[in-house]
Amino acid sequence: MKGITFDFYKTLGERTKPTPSFEQLSDILVDKEYPVYPQELEAARNYVFFHDFEHHTSWQEWWGQIFRRLDFDPPDQKTLTELIPPPLELYPGIPELMKQLEDYRLSIVTTVPPFMFEPAIADIKERLVAVTTGYSARCAKGNPRMYLLDLELKKLKATESLFVGNDPLYDIKYPKKLGMATIHITIPENSSEFADW
Question: What share of the chain is helix, strand, coil (3-state, %, to 5)?
Answer without folding.
Answer: 45, 15, 40
